[in-house]
Amino acid sequence: MSMAGNLRKVTSLGRVGGLRKVARLGRRRARVDLSHPARSPLGSAVVNCVAYRDGVRIPGGRDLVDTVERIRKSDEGFVWLGLHEPTDQEFAGVADLFDLHPLAVEDAVEAHQRPKLERYDETLFAVFKTVCYVEHQELTATSEVVHTGEIMVFVGSDFVITVRHGRHGSLGPLREELEADPRQLAKGPAAVLHAIADHVVDDYVHVTDSVQEDIDAVEADVFAENGARADAGRIYQLKRELLELKRAVVPLARPVQELATRPIRVVDPEIQAYFRDVSDHLIRVTEQIAAFDELLNSILQAHLAQVSVAQNEDMRKITAWAAVIAVPTMVCGVYGMNFDNMPELRWRFGYPIVIGVIAVGCLVLYRGFRRNGWL
Where are the membrane-spanning stretches (predicted)? Predict the structure, then answer.
């Protein structure tokens, strides 16, 4: 049974003493699918738990506590523990073992946090909002375009703890990429933090590119021949989903900037150069989202103007036809009063002449309105 398999029992105890009794380590299990939609494929909140030295996996000791103590005594390597939506009880033992601050633990368990970066003594706590694009055949007024989740990261001198919330944003592929590059992973927990930040921001780039395709489709519909009949609800839905994306991306700018510029004990200066690259990509995404917002505002205003013009055209047509119909209505109304002494009332040619006058009057009005573009 692997360290991760034992740890799923450990997290339910809520204290270090229980950790020593049941966290028995043994042979490593085969790789599992880490993109499970709900809980961990290992059957608990634990996704994976691996110790590294010089960027390479090392076999575990008798239990998790012994492994951590051995790494701390040798002052080499670190432990990477991955969790998915742990409960208070599941996370209590981990918090005690790594001496995590209660406020950070509360944020990690409860989730629904803004992107931020906080320092608690020797531990760095970072919150990232993950996003994914929801595929759809056709955008409607109720389509979900962007789905968000969260990744909380605890970084110490000899450990990294990742807590993931949401049905996407698996870090399994990222772990494999890092393990394929031992030189980068050997730079310590800060290298893992950078890889997570870079992974999250890269997802932002992919999502914004996909959202741009939806915006282009809506723009084409609005400026088509029958653009006034386009569904305005699609534009509002895109604006709402773009706002969700903005809430995930924009607040992350300050934490990434701090990681790239401010001296932090657990972040090696060499890693800060990598964070500057992440910051550049994040700025690009932020500017792109701001441009999308302005573009959607312009599209919405153009659509409302088209609707207003179409309504004016309809009102002009209705008015023109009402004027044409007013001619026979007036004439027939006059001769329908049934007075005895009305002009030409008993004349033989009175009826055909009245009909002719009505027809000529309607034709003149029709041609006049048609010439002026009202009909």
Answer: 318-337, 349-369
Residue 109 pLDDT greater than 60, yes or no: yes
pLDDT of 337 over the 60 cut:
yes
Q: How far, in Å, are 212, 252, 294 from residue 289 at the CA level?
A: 9, 14, 9
Number of domains in the chain: 1
Q: Does residue 4 have a pLDDT over 60?
A: no
Determine, yes or no, domain membership for 359: yes
Residue 346 belongs to some domain of the structure: yes
Residue in 216, 195, 184, 182 with CA at minimum distance from that of residue 58: 182
User: Is residue 245, in this structure, part of any structural domain at all?
Assistant: no
How far apart, in whole angstroms, are the C-alpha atoms of residue 7 and residue 35? 19
Comparing C-alpha atoms, which of 325, 246, 308, 239 is closest to residue 282? 246
Neighbouring-strand partners of residue 161: 81, 154
Share of the chain residues as helix, strand and coil, in percent rounded to the nearest 5: 55, 15, 30
Residues 253, 353: Cα–Cα separation, whole Å? 83
Structural domain harbouring 362: 310-371
Q: Is the dihedral of CA 365, 371, 374, 375 positive or negative?
A: positive
Give this prediction's pTM: 0.73
Beta-strand pair 146-155/123-133: antiparallel
Strands 56-58 and 116-120: unpaired
268-290 per-position pLDDT tens digit = 888 888 999 999 999 999 999 99
pLDDT of residue 346: 66
Q: Which CATH number fits the domain that encloses residue 321?
A: 1.20.58.340
Percentage of residues in the chain having pLDDT higher than 70: 81
The SS3 of residue 124 is: strand
- H/E stretch holding 133 reads strand 123-133
Asked if the structure places residue 332 within a domain, the reply is: yes
* pLDDT, tens digit, 9 for 90 and up, residues 175-215: 889 989 889 888 889 999 999 999 999 999 999 999 999 89
Tell me 28's DSSP state: P
